[in-house]
From TrEMBL:
Gene: Cnig_chr_III.g11581
Any Pfam family: FBA_2
Domain of life: Eukaryota
Name of the protein in question: Sdz-33 F-box domain-containing protein
InterPro entries: F-box_Sdz-33
Residue ranges of every copy of the Sdz-33 F-box domain listed in the record: 87-147
Length: 215
């Protein structure tokens, strides 16, 4: 199989830029599959992982042993509710089923793009994240932060509590299946950096997206 891949790559004169894994089909072969991928493509830009309740240690093995430099998309629930160790060498992370994600976990990540769904983060937690960014205490290079809203009704009163903002026009939806709910909340970091916070209805529930405008 490796020879077939190398022959095909030679004919196409191109490298693999992204890898998508369905862990439901691993069936105990996680290490063999990862070893084969490493032998074929030591480094890729993007990694996407899908599955229903794989073992957390297998997912962690994938993250530890496959080198991906741009982004990782994780669309699965793990059997264990244990935080994953995500390499800070990548630029973006999207975790679709993040019941194990805490505010402390989010605060220690260094990526410029963060997107989480299915978390238990409260509006108070989101408020703390926004304030940390505004006060330049964390995530100074952030360009996008997306988070699910467990209680959309109190997002403005709690999620934006004690944060100065101006209402702006609705921003374009980041994905086709996102529907903007209202106008944007325009906030300013203490160094003058601007950001827009927008609320969208999505197939997975309501989310808030903060888009920072890098100079």
């Amino acid at each position: 199989m490796k020879k077939l891949y190398l022959d095909a790559r030679s004919v196409m004169s191109d490298e693999i830029h992204s890898v998508t894994l369905d862990m439901d089909n691993f069936k105990g072969r996680c290490r063999k599959i990862v070893a084969w991928l490493k032998s074929c493509c030591p480094e890729v830009l993007d990694l996407a992982v899908y599955g229903k309740n794989p073992r957390q240690e297998e997912l962690q093995y994938v993250l530890d042993n496959l080198k991906f430099t741009n982004s990782s998309y994780i669309y699965l629930d793990t059997i264990e509710d244990v935080p994953l160790e995500i390499p800070n060498t990548i630029e973006r992370i999207r975790i679709q089923n993040g019941s194990w994600i805490t505010l402390d976990y989010v605060m220690q990540l260094k990526m410029i793009g963060l997107a989480f769904n299915g978390t238990s983060l409260t509006s108070q937690d989101i408020n703390a994240f926004y304030k940390s960014w505004i006060e330049m205490e964390s995530h100074q290079n952030l360009d996008c932060f997306e988070i699910n809203l467990r209680n959309p009704e109190n997002f403005v009163t709690v999620g934006l509590r004690d944060i100065s903002y101006k209402m702006g026009s609705p921003k374009d939806e980041p994905f086709r299946d996102y529907t903007v709910i209202e106008g944007s909340f325009e906030v300013t970091r203490k160094d003058g950096q601007k950001a827009s916070i927008c609320v969208y209805d999505t197939p997975n529930g309501v989310v808030a997206c903060m888009f920072a405008f890098q100079d």
